Amino acid sequence: MGGDASLNGKGVDERGIPLKSDYPPLPIPVLYIGFTLVSLAISLGIAFAVYELGPTTKYDAKITLLASYDLGWVYLGLFVVKLALLSININLGISRQKSKVNVPDQQVYKVYTPEG
């Protein structure tokens, strides 16, 4: 193929797969859990600021309504879904790091061409 010659010397092997992963050298679970905790801290900070600086009686009425319908389990369910997605993304990140298939490349294909 004519395009293969342009890939030589650019950090890829003869099949076009990168020689190293774009992920940093730290463990993938630490990386993904760290990102999740940072986004959680930012979200909780914004929620706290909105609650404290806004009409708290209005917010308390909505929270009381949710509590009266016993809907706290819905929020717990959303948190469990978030944890499930985190575990899926950690698994995906580990697989990407080992296979050296970097984001946004989601698949690696092997092209079969006839001899000659």
Quick recap of the structure?
The chain is mainly alpha-helical and 116 residues long.
What features would you describe in this structure?
With 116 residues, this protein is mostly helical. The chain has helices at 4-7, 28-53, 56-68, 72-99. Helix 2 runs antiparallel to helix 4 (72-99). The longest helix is centred in the C-terminal third of the chain and has 28 residues, at 72-99. It starts with a helix and ends in a 17-residue tail after the last helix. The model is unreliable at 1-8 (pLDDT under 50).
Low-confidence runs (pLDDT<50, min 5 residues)?
1-8
Largest sheet: none
| Strand-residue proportion | under 5%
Helix content: 55-70%
Oligomer: single chain
Distance between the termini: 11 Å
The radius of gyration over CA amounts to 23 Å
Based on Cα principal axes, name the global outline.
elongated
Count the DSSP helices: 4
Structural class: mainly alpha
Number of strands: 0
Query: What is the arithmetic mean of pLDDT?
Result: 86
How do the helices and strands follow one another from N- to C-terminus? Answer: HHHH
Write the layout of secondary structure elements.
Layout: H1 4-7, H2 28-53, H3 56-68, H4 72-99
Helix pairs in contact: 2-4
List keywords for this structure.
single chain, mainly alpha, 4 helices, 61% helix
